[in-house]
Amino acid sequence: MISQYQVRLFHNGRNQTLNIPHAFEMPSNDVVIRKEGEKLIIEPFNKKSLLELLATLPDIDEDFPDIDQGLLPLDDIQF
Q: Cα–Cα distances in Å, from 9 out to 12, 18, 75?
């Protein structure tokens, strides 16, 4: 497998574009691009599930108020 290609950059308005060779095709249409020194790094953008995102948040140390305080138990409500 070829590990590098020489490609031409094109100007598209104020942006530069390039055609990615088929051998380097990305698994997604969404990517993250960043610059490290003179290199451009392009990586697939992996959306995290809500559970994965919540797992990264710090624990909450606050006590939550009892929002049911003063309400009748559900069994005592008559329609």
A: 10, 5, 71
